[in-house]
Design brief:
The protein is of the alpha+beta class. It is 70% helix and 8% strand. It is elongated and about 100 Å long.
Length: 298
């Protein structure tokens, strides 16, 4: 397509927005409402997914090592056990903690009364193990339990499986809702644009009668759909950015040190805003193209 022709199509698409102002407002409003819902829901789901990931990454396996009186024999057995666990393909991290360190943690959490056990410490040396995939924690724990020198393997059996099950269900529901919302947005926006094009059937028929090709007729409408998508995305982008920025500004300081943390403003808003703009453009172009092609029989 020649640059002059393309320039003409751009001018016509802008003029068409002004000539059909009421239909443009209706189309932009449909885009705005649906993309606003998509943006808000995307922000919520991204933060919920972060919470789910944080909970998963917080799951670890606590391996109690057998008590062996001979120091040399204990050290050798522990080194062998650590090496065996580190060599497991599903293990990402192994941290060693002495029984003295374990007692210090208990004193810190439950009070100085437990310092009485310092003279005769009944605790075990411990290995804290994390799986590469937190969902594989139970399998890794079962494999470690079979190794020599392991006294007991603890990972919250039963509770961890229930947690992962609930998180997976939540992710699947969120994915289904987002896909459903996107299809709803595409349906509403394409229908609105379709009405706009049908209202201008005479204009298209006149263009065809004077010899305009299909692409010559179609391109201005496709560009017009793109502008409608861009204009419709501006309000959701601005609204979502303002709301999340203020929400993060007020809540993030209060949640410092807590397990639940909000995603940082910069990456999440850039990602969501880019998604909204892309969706607006794609849906606007797609709605215009399909409406002209299918319903006006060009």
């Amino acid at each position: 397509m020649k640059a002059r022709t393309l320039s003409r199509h751009f001018r016509e698409s802008f003029k068409s927005l002004g000539r059909n102002s009421w239909m443009t407002v209706a189309s932009v409003s449909a885009v705005t409402v649906t993309l606003l819902l998509v943006g808000v829901f995307a922000i919520i789901m991204m933060n919920l997914n972060k919470v789910a990931n944080d909970l998963e990454n917080d799951v670890e396996i606590r391996v109690l090592i057998d008590i062996i009186q001979d120091e040399q024999e204990l050290k050798s057995a522990e080194e062998k056990l650590i090496a065996e666990i580190k060599n497991m393909p599903d293990v990402s991290e192994v941290e060693y903690s002495t029984k003295e360190q374990e007692l210090d943690k208990l004193v810190q959490n439950f009070g100085d009364e437990l310092t009485l056990f310092e003279q005769n410490n009944p605790l075990h040396n411990v290995l804290y193990v994390k799986a590469v995939d937190p969902q594989q924690t139970a399998q890794v724990a079962a494999a470690i339990e079979k190794l020599d020198t392991t006294y007991q393997v603890l990972y919250g059996k039963g509770k961890v499986e229930n947690l992962f099950g609930a998180l997976n269900i939540g992710r699947n529901i969120g994915l289904v809702l987002i896909v459903g919302l996107l299809f709803t947005a595409m349906f509403l926006i394409s229908n609105t644009i379709r009405i706009t094009i049908i209202a201008r059937r005479d204009e298209i028929e006149i263009m065809k009668l004077v010899g305009a090709t299909n692409s010559f007729v179609r391109v201005p409408f496709v560009l017009e759909g793109m502008w409608i998508g861009v204009l419709g995305a501006l309000v959701p982008i601005t609204t979502v950015s303002i709301i999340y920025y203020n929400l993060h500004k007020n809540l993030a300081p209060r949640m410092q040190g807590e397990l639940l943390q909000l995603l940082d403003v910069t990456p999440v808003l850039l990602q969501v805003n880019a998604l909204l703009l892309l969706l607006g453009v794609v849906i606007g172009i797609w709605g215009s193209f399909m409406s002209v092609r299918k319903f006006l029989k060009i």
